[in-house]
Amino acid sequence: MEEKLQVSRLIKTYADKTVLNGINFTVHNGEFLSVLGPSGCGKTTLLRILIGIEPFDSGHIQKDGEEISNLPPNARGMGIVFQNYALFPNMSVLQNVMYPLKFQPKLKKNAKSIALDIIEKVGLTEHIGKKPNKLSGGQQQRVAIARTLALSPDIVLFDEPMSALDAANRVALRKEIKEIQAKFGITMIYITHDQEEAFSMSDRVIVMDEGNIVQMDTPYEVYHHPANDYVEQFVTCHLKEKISSIQESVGGVR
Amino acid sequence: MTKSRTLSLSVKLVLTAFFMVTVFLPIISMFSKINWATIGSIVNTATFGQTVFNSLSVTICATIISVITAYLLAFAINHSRIPCKGALSILITLPMLIPSISHGLGLINLFGENGLLTNLLGIPSNLYGFNGILIGSVMYSFPVAFLMLSDAMKYADETIYEAARVLGIPKGSRFFSVTLPYMKRPLISATFAVFTMVFTDYGVPLSIGGRFVTLPVYLYTEVIGLQDFSRGAFIGLLLLIPAIITFLIDLRKKDNEGMGFASKSIRIERNRLRDILLGLFCVLVIGFVLLVLVSFAIMTFIGKYPYDMSFTLRHIQEVMDKGLGEFFSNSLLISILVALIGTVVGYITAYVTARTESRVVSRILHLTSISSLAIPGIVLGLGYVICFSGSFLYGTIFILVLVNIIHFFSSPYMMAHNAMKKLNPNFEDVGKTLCVGRLRLLRDVFIPNTLDTIAEMFGYFFVNSMITISAVAFLYNTRTMPLAILINQLEGDMMFEAAAFVSMIILLSNILAKIVIAGVKKFCKYRLAK
Ligand SMILES: Nc1ncnc2c1ncn2[C@@H]1O[C@H](COP(=O)(O)OP(=O)(O)OP(=O)(O)O)[C@@H](O)[C@H]1O
Ligand SMILES: [Mg+2]
């Protein structure tokens, strides 16, 4: 399998705290990789370092075999979708997607047609003139994805994109994200709290704990052969949480 | 990347240097003027003791009345079911549109020896001195306290009241156990803010203080009349004390106060008696405010109350002869320049402190920006005289513009700062990954999304520059004199009718400005929501 992204011995410390403790992993081309872990274990930090908006202490990041850690974020061929989407509230769907294209000398001329094409692919054509506050959470998410895809990255990073949505939407949107991935043929790295989400979407899952990767494997392996007690507990405890929350919401309906 | 780093660093350096020169340098040079050897002889005089006592007694009384009035009004607007709350709020804040000196003048119109009311009701006048300063100071300060308290109440969270209801806390003690503790901080803030405002104001005491001299008037006469800068600076130091305490209290509050967003708006229970009483109180206060404002119009157009009741334009002519046109255009020019430059500087500073990483510089800039709030206008003015009297700025209109920008900087700065903090924290990151630089984001995202805040900042600078006399009184000359100062001069010449007319012009200009700003804000909201 082709190696798309290779991270080795990545170390990040804030003042007195080690947030990433020499992390190694490889992402395959076209893969959907989830990063799972409790709050504060360094997931967001990892993503921010990968895309280049956060400096790190030492280590290497290679994409397609080339070191990219010295490149600025916009030259890495990566996109990111933030938890809160960070859409520009004063711009319509079309303007949001077109906006970054305007500053690309090569793409400037075709900005509109590129944007229209992507908006169609993510299924937002009928909402093209609306401002973000007139869209549902799931639609906003798709705008954010479209805006990122406009610059045709080959890796897209997601930082808990579902956490702003309600439970019913989340399940439907899993499928949509996967469809978008297939349509554009891109690699995705996806951060989540939710092990069920990670297991149902991913080719492989990384489980993190306090700046370390404790397991990296297929969902099946992680579930059936957890590497250690921590992973087992993390997986089952979240499953229990899930079940009790489902019970709660069912009870709430009646 | 490095280019934008250099740009942001140089912006920060320029701003820091700007505040060093415009805030700290004047204050430091003022203190350096104090000749401590002679201070003892000032402090030990009976006049000085009397002045301090005068200031404290009238300020404490005015603060108590002002805050209680403001609290009741804020409560009526936020926790009762009286009608027309929007209109009432606007009327309550009308006094903020005229100079403090005009409040004194309005009271003279109504309650002076030959005042409209004293004459009508045939009661003896006992206005000049403590009474007049007290009422005038309350008039001038309660709208500010009202805005502070009303803001806090607006964001009060219904859930705490719900919890209180669920816990079965009886209505009466709910006020003491829930409302009051929740309002404690805003009340303390408002109390200190009003205390400082009244303590350092000299517009009201100057116009109706009579022989009742307060510290700011003492400072004013020492400096302007006797050119004694050492004494002036020493009193300036005294005036700075409550202002600094207020600042420190607000600093603690602002630091640990998240953005107050009500998760649920307050449910107001039905209570007729409460509504009637509070409604009546609102009407009384507003009635009094309107009486003062209307008195300007009556005085302007009547020959000489109560002797000559004929309609006349004579007083308008008198003011024209005094050079109304020139002073009015001075005021407009100053206010527009202050509003333009102040808004730009305030906005950029807020952008730097709210949206850039470097914590130390941002922190310093932020503290400096809000600390300008702590410096009373009178102290700032004195500092500017001492610091800049030899410079090229002195005697030009720009020194007035500069001193007003600094004097009124802190509130508009905080408006912009809060507005930008509320915008998505990831915009810059998004920009970096999409190859959109900070300046482009500023132009295409930040400014379009904060246009209503910008309009509000502009309005704040404009209105306050139109009414201020405290700082500019030390710095104007005959060519650059603003309109508000003219009121003081006309009063000095016993031309109360003419002074009333000038007050009315300032009031009307500010009402017009407010209407325009409100229109612009509506339009911005509409465009954003479209
Ligand atoms: N700018 C910063 N300065 C200091 N410490 C930071 C900073 N940013 C993050 N941290 C710390 O680094 C650790 C990892 O943070 P990170 O945001 O990566 O966690 P996370 O796994 O994304 O958590 P969550 O699931 O809550 O989003 C946390 O302990 C956090 O407090
Ligand atoms: Mg995170």
Concise account of the structure shown:
The complex is a heterodimer of chains A (254) and B (530). Chain A is of the alpha/beta class and 254 residues long.
How would you describe this structure in keywords?
heterodimer; A: 254 residues; Rossmann fold; ABC transporter ATPase like fold; 2 domains; six-stranded mixed β-sheet; four-stranded antiparallel β-sheet; 8 helices; 10 strands; B: 530 residues; mainly alpha; MetI-like fold; two-stranded antiparallel ribbon; 24 helices; binds magnesium ion
What is the element layout, followed by pairings?
The complex is a heterodimer of chains A (254) and B (530).
Chain A: E1 3-14, E2 17-28, E3 32-36, H1 43-51, E4 58-63, E5 66-67, E6 78-81, H2 93-98, H3 111-121, H4 137-149, E7 155-159, H5 167-184, E8 187-192, H6 195-201, E9 204-209, E10 212-217, H7 219-224, H8 229-253
Parallel strand pairs in A: 3-8, 3-9, 6-7, 7-8
Antiparallel strand pairs in A: 1-2, 1-4, 4-5, 9-10
Chain B: H1 2-32, H2 36-43, H3 46-79, H4 85-92, H5 100-111, H6 116-121, H7 130-154, H8 158-166, H9 171-200, H10 203-208, H11 215-225, H12 229-256, H13 272-301, E1 302-304, E2 308-311, H14 314-322, H15 324-355, H16 359-371, H17 377-388, H18 397-407, H19 410-422, H20 427-433, H21 438-449, H22 451-467, H23 483-492, H24 496-529
Antiparallel strand pairs in B: 1-2
The complex binds adenosine-5'-triphosphate and magnesium ion (MG).
Residues 43-44, 159 of chain A line the site of magnesium ion.
Average pLDDT rating of chain B: 88
Give the proportion of residues in helices of chain B: over 70%
Task: State the name of the first-level CATH class of the largest domain in chain A.
Answer: Alpha Beta
Read across the widest sheet of chain A, the strand sequence of neighbours is 6-7-8-3-9-10
Describe this structure in words.
The complex is a heterodimer of chains A (254) and B (530). The relative contact order of chain A is 0.16. Chain A has helices at 43-51, 93-98, 111-121, 137-149, 167-184, 195-201, 219-224, 229-253; strands spanning 3-14, 17-28, 32-36, 58-63, 66-67, 78-81, 155-159, 187-192, 204-209, 212-217. With 254 residues, chain A is of the alpha/beta class. The longest helix of chain A has 25 residues, at 229-253. Chain A is globular, with a radius of gyration of 19 Å. In chain A, α5 links the parallel β7 (155-159) and β8 (187-192). In chain A, the strands form two sheets. Chain A has a six-stranded mixed sheet with strand order 6-7-8-3-9-10, with helices on both faces. In chain A, strands 2-1-4-5 form a four-stranded antiparallel sheet, with helices on one face. Chain B is mainly α. In chain B, 77% of the residues lie in helices and 1% in strands. Chain B has helices at residues 2-32, 36-43, 46-79, 85-92, 100-111, 116-121, 130-154, 158-166, 171-200, 203-208, 215-225, 229-256, 272-301, 314-322, 324-355, 359-371, 377-388, 397-407, 410-422, 427-433, 438-449, 451-467, 483-492, 496-529, and strands spanning 302-304, 308-311. A two-stranded antiparallel sheet of chain B has the order 1-2. The radius of gyration of chain B is 24 Å and the shape is globular. Classes of the chains: A alpha/beta (254), B mainly alpha (530). The A-B interface holds A 48, 51-53, 72-74, 78-80, 82, 84, 86-91, 99-100, 103-104, 131, 133, 147-148, 151 and B 1, 424, 426-427, 429-430, 432-437, 440, 444-445, 448-449, 528-530. The complex binds adenosine-5'-triphosphate (ATP) and magnesium ion. Adenosine-5'-triphosphate is lined by residues 14, 19, 37, 39-45, 193 of chain A.
